[in-house]
Amino acid sequence: MRESMEFDVVIVGAGPAGLSTACRLMQQAQENEQELTVCVVEKGSEVGAHILSGAVVETRALDELFPDWKEKGAPLNTAVTEDEVYLLKDPKQGTKVPNAFVPKTMHNQGNYIVSLGNLCRWLAEQAEELGVEVFPGFAASEVLFNEDGSVKGIATGDMGVTAEGEQGPNYMPGMELHAKYTIFSEGCRGHLGKQLISQFSLYKGSDAQHYGLGIKELWDIPAEQHKPGLVVHGSGWPLDKETSGGFFLYHTDNNQVVVGLIIDLNYKNPHLSPFDEFQRLKHHPVLSRHLKGGKRVSYGARAITKGGYNSLPKMTFPGGLLLGCDAGTLNFSKIKGTHTAMKSGMLAAEALFEALSNGDEGGKELERFNELFKDSWLYDELYRSRNFGPAMHKFGQLAGGAFNYIDQNWFGGRIPVTLHDNHPDHAQLAPADHYEPIKYPKPDGELSFDKLSSVFLSNTNHEEDQPCHLKLADADIPLKQNLKLFAEPAQRYCPAGVYEIVEDEAGQRFQINGQNCLHCKTCDIKDPAQNITWVTPEGMGGPNYPNM
Amino acid sequence: MKALVAVKRVIDYNVKVRVKSDNTDVDLANVKMALNPFCEIAVEEAVRLKEAGTVSEVVVVSIGPKACQEQIRTALALGADRGIQIETDEMPESLGVAKLLAKVVEEEKPELVILGKQSIDSDNNQTGQMLGALLDMPQGTFASEVKVEGDKVNVTREVDGGLQTVALNLPAIVTTDLRLNEPRYASLPNIMKAKKKPLDVKTPADLGVELKAHTRLLKVAPPAERQAGIRVSSVDELVDKLKNEAKVI
């Protein structure tokens, strides 16, 4: 029997969207001298442990939420000083794009290079000071419904269940957290969000959602190479013409550099390995000149919801809201999702507070949120960048880039056409025999590394004796279908080496090393048969990212 | 009967420890911290003794900066009754810790003091023993079983080559080993309750202890990286290499 607790608002996920909702709710409650009970559950072992982002952050939402964030010590320490954009032609050559030809949305004056994990740690401190209950180490594993079908809350996962699914010696049943309204802000492809989207048909009328996979490393570099505030972006090599994506390299504080590659998950070639593309990318002189002599400190990966305006699901349903990257509020033309996720949370908090202070007992669809959203700068921003992603997909990097330059710099994103890209990412893979397998260079141990030593640096860990949290709907599909047709791409798209085809005397078998999982959700997105479902492992499990 | 449990905030065991690039110390910037696993076992044992009716109150004490209140709260969520933080930004050595704890023991007068056998960061394995010497109390270290019987406690110790059981007169000091118990998970309601449990803050000066450094940290260096292996083509080559290169046979 599970125990239950009652709150006014329960928030799933301590990221920018969830914590902004919590903070804004409590600020309003204090201004109006009202009691409000708000709780945030977070599956990571601490707030920030599962947060991974570039990140160059625009402060618009933060300025609104905490105008005095500087005095309060928010960890935004490195203002952007310089923007560089490159087109890489081949392993040796790259062209710097003159600033005048860069889409306006890619300019970063006034923005800050931050560790989003640390920003979330700070936001959680603010939330707790305002009276929010923040519970890291508890994974929301189940949505609870009222009899009328509205969302009643969530249940946290059971702890201490053995691999066989039995109650171990430390078994502790999950808790039911009931709320008038439940906020789902799990980040890209949240597993409860995915269920709600299908249950309430939230994608009705939207284009297919699109995703990218971001892989990131943090480096210590020699002080003489360090240029705090320098932001470098680029695209091209090593990705071929039909694969879109781009890299980032930011000089942050403390003689550190973050470097990463985002690959759109609509890539076609099943032999492609995002991890290995990123490793070889770092050998390009445009990047290696920043990294040489340095030492890699951390590694991680996370999927990105990037469909934007055209793919945005309905964010309201009876008893709850879907916010931030769980819905897809990222502005891909800026490659930024923090300020938009935060704003979605703040708007939600306003709609929620209005309802609750008028005696709303919960369980309704908060139409007011949709009105506030439509009137906000968030909507305007997403609307104006609606063509950015589809243009790249339709016209390719160059012509798409030109379209985006014209749309963003001449029309301010208000070009009177809307481009659509309605092919889901998982359906894009071509059969393996249409392509030659890609021969990736061996890692040199200085700039490039193998997968396992990389995963090691993510500090990822899962309690050993627990059921596998990567569920196959049909256990035969990996070998019988995916291996035959696509050379089982899970072996390559997973940036943590979770999936392996192992051969022994008994023959071939599909092995899932769930312990390595970085919670990036790529498998749930890219599996061509949509056969893999990512569910929450026991709370506390997963990466422990510092400063990511 | 009152039990006092000492707990320490340490780097989480899941985190791969990294040395600062200037070799001055381990990098702790935004690294996940946690309750020292041996201390967690100590808290669990005290709580089990309370649940069994042997102990009536469990007091946890931790020494460190304000952040170590997090670990005290964790212990309170596991079932301890109240906490004491001795606030200092210094990293006291084992002797300093033992001196501070001795003062707390004099004030609180517990019958049982339970500590982890060592912390996983400095790995000294000294505090419990030093505390025993300072207080002239019997000690049972590396405990894998603790049984209170009347005014005695029987402690089964994990020693080289087997187990040794000692009977100690109370009040006594016990330091925990890994096999003593498997700590429970803190439940959500207990975490919420823990926020409301009493937590006193004291300073070393309040206790009349002056912390002194007896050692100086000169340098911290990561272990040498393992060299890549090589593949040998024959047994003869292997034997040759073991004989002439590795010089092990």
UniProtKB/TrEMBL annotation, chain A:
Its EC number is 1.5.5.1. This is Electron transfer flavoprotein-ubiquinone oxidoreductase. PANTHER family: ELECTRON TRANSFER FLAVOPROTEIN-UBIQUINONE OXIDOREDUCTASE, ELECTRON TRANSFER FLAVOPROTEIN-UBIQUINONE OXIDOREDUCTASE, MITOCHONDRIAL. The keyword Flavoprotein applies. Residues 211-304 form the ETF-QO/FixC ubiquinone-binding domain. Its cofactor is [4Fe-4S] cluster; FAD. It is an enzyme of class 1 (oxidoreductase). InterPro entries: ETF-QO, ETF-QO/FixC_UQ-bd, ETF-QO/FixX_C, FAD/NAD-bd_sf. Accepts electrons from ETF and reduces ubiquinone. The lineage of its organism: Bacteria, Pseudomonadati, Pseudomonadota, Gammaproteobacteria, Oceanospirillales. Keywords: 4Fe-4S, Electron transport, FAD, Flavoprotein, Iron, Iron-sulfur, Metal-binding, Oxidoreductase, Transport, Ubiquinone. Coiled coil: none annotated. It comes from Marinobacterium stanieri. It catalyses: a ubiquinone + reduced [electron-transfer flavoprotein] = a ubiquinol + oxidized [electron-transfer flavoprotein] + H(+). Residues 445-545 form the ETF-QO/FixX C-terminal domain. Binds 1 [4Fe-4S] cluster. GO terms for molecular function: 4 iron, 4 sulfur cluster binding; electron-transferring-flavoprotein dehydrogenase activity; metal ion binding. It comes from the Bacteria.
From TrEMBL, chain B:
PANTHER family: ELECTRON TRANSFER FLAVOPROTEIN BETA-SUBUNIT, ELECTRON TRANSFER FLAVOPROTEIN SUBUNIT BETA. GO terms for molecular function: electron transfer activity. GO terms for biological process: carboxylic acid catabolic process. Pfam families: ETF (PF01012). InterPro entries: ET-Flavoprotein_bsu_CS (IPR000049), ETF_a/b_N (IPR014730), ETF_b (IPR012255), ETF_beta_N (IPR033948), Rossmann-like_a/b/a_fold (IPR014729). Belongs to the ETF beta-subunit/FixA family. Residues 23-211 form the Electron transfer flavoprotein alpha/beta-subunit N-terminal domain. The electron transfer flavoprotein serves as a specific electron acceptor for other dehydrogenases. It transfers the electrons to the main respiratory chain via ETF-ubiquinone oxidoreductase (ETF dehydrogenase). This is Electron transfer flavoprotein subunit beta. Keywords: Electron transport, Transport. Its cofactor is AMP. Heterodimer of an alpha and a beta subunit.
